[in-house]
């Protein structure tokens, strides 16, 4: 997989290098702009179902606020309801605990093949890579994820994993990996993947899914998809494992009436996705279909750290619709893999420094135009651009700014407090000092040019000559 996570001081320099390459890659930009253009054309059709869209978004934000304000109680209610129906609930504080739980389950079930549906949280815990180390064949069943797995890449986008690939790219990849016709049509490629994946379902001992929502009052897992692969992943194998972040909680079943259409509209432009499933436990005695055992792994992995920050807590409202990525001018120029972490785009730039290390990942919050378009399109009205600024402020408060930056702003502050000091420096001196300090700016742009006299000086001269 294409990852650069947890590489210490290399993280920022790798991000900058990849950004420079991708920003100049016109073919890459053409492909993602084509796919985002199709998304932009579809979304207004989904929005047409609403008579008051802003009200729906505000209600959704308030429901997520309520869920997070009462998260401790709702998680316990959720667990109690699931336990009544025979499911097992595992609490994982970090990636290592989640992986250990999965290792134990795979060993108990003598698992050799595992099928999984699209899930960003499984990317967060590096599930496929981990399963490979313990001898389990993990197969992505979402078509986009399957394409990325064949190519050895991580998902490019929260919703559309292979957004950066054209149909010609996919045909070439299938020809290389699966021996298909290099000129195969998308329909033919899909049928090829379908035939392969159906056999994997038959072989699999365990199926893994994520959860779009955790429903507290019924102890339910809500999964929304367009391909039906998640239903097969949870119903066909004898054991079903759900892996979900604790922030996915919503208070009540009736809230799905609000969240499912919003997720569909802002995720893909649909009024409702094709398959919407509620799972409330393993197969019961009176049922003929479903898994014999069900495990739900509730992952923290830094989420309670975000929850403890009254300002950043709002970022946990995210329903992973991906709308902010499609709207972001930075994402559309540098692409998803450049970020080097599970969650890319504006939401990734907000949560990654708080899920991981602010010192190592604060550069993501700086890679933003602060245009506010992400906030404008957010399905649950998260103030993303404000949270990006909050991350920048938090980095300064915690002393994460480099020494050169601290000295620069200290000098700037002194100059701004003393007009006479600023007037002493001629345009030539200012040009040398500022352009020397602003190397990161001038590498991609022309030098900053200051006039020989400041406005203050020109104004004084004008007043004297009157």
Note the main attributes of this structure.
Fumarate Reductase Iron-sulfur Protein, Chain B, domain 2; 3 domains; Rossmann fold; 10% strand; 25 helices; six-stranded parallel β-sheet; 10 strands; 466 residues; four-stranded mixed β-sheet; alpha/beta
Give the oligomer, counting copies of the same chain as homo and different chains as hetero.
single chain
Classify the helix fraction into a percent range. 40-55%
What name does the CATH topology of the largest domain carry? Rossmann fold
Strand order of the largest sheet: 1-10-7-4-2-3
Query: How many E-type strands?
Result: 10
Which CATH-level-2 architecture of the largest domain? 3-Layer(aba) Sandwich
Q: Give the rounded overall mean pLDDT.
A: 92
The H-level CATH homologous superfamily of the largest domain, spelled out, is NagB/RpiA/CoA transferase-like
Describe this structure in words.
The protein is α/β, with parallel strands linked by helices and 466 residues long. It has 3 domains: 15-48 and 313-399, Fumarate Reductase Iron-sulfur Protein, Chain B, domain 2 (Orthogonal Bundle); 52-301, 3-Layer(aba) Sandwich (Rossmann fold); 403-464, no CATH class. The chain is built from 25 helices and 10 strands. Helix 2 (26-47) packs antiparallel against helix 12 (256-268). The longest helix is centred in the first third of the chain and has 22 residues, at 26-47. The protein starts with 9 loop residues before the first helix and ends with a helix. The model has no long low-confidence stretch (mean pLDDT 92).
